[in-house]
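Lab notebook: predicted structure, single chain.

Context: the supervisor wants predicted structures on file for every construct in the current expression panel, including those that have not yet been purified. This is the next one on the list. No modifications to the sequence; it matches the entry in the shared construct table.
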Amino acid sequence: MKKLSALVLSLILATGLLAGCGASASSASSEAVSSEVVSEAAPAESAAVSTAEDAAAAIAVTFTVTGADGESTVLTLDAADGEKLSDALAAAGVISAEEAPAEEAAPAEEAAPAEEAPAEEAAAGFVTVVNGEEADYNADGAWWCLTDAAGEMTTVGVADIELHDGDSYAFTYTK
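Prediction complete. Output recorded below exactly as produced.
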């Protein structure tokens, strides 16, 4: 009886899986057909499409900063789709350029001396100064907590987050 139940359950799951894949495949093929139709548009319309695509590359991202005093500032960052959060924040003056690490990190054998610890922290995406307000963990246990739109702490630093239209992030002074 258990074998028969297992067989029936397997058939039901397989049928559901195939039906689901078939629906997405037909959806994908209809999207391909509609994109082919659009690509056959008149040449005059293609210039307008290029302009629209260029405008689509610019995105708006909401960023909130809550300082030690509890006051919040909401900013709209103008960024490009896929741009790193660290670069957008540095361009807006929210963090310094030193805390927006460069794309390439120094090789491990060229480790920075101890007095360059802030540069090492920036390379890791760790931010210590936001809107001119410093959070010094070593002095008083304060730090900037980076959260996503759901209010969840991010698992990566600002240097690793790629921005997309409608994204929302926040820095909160935490002690």
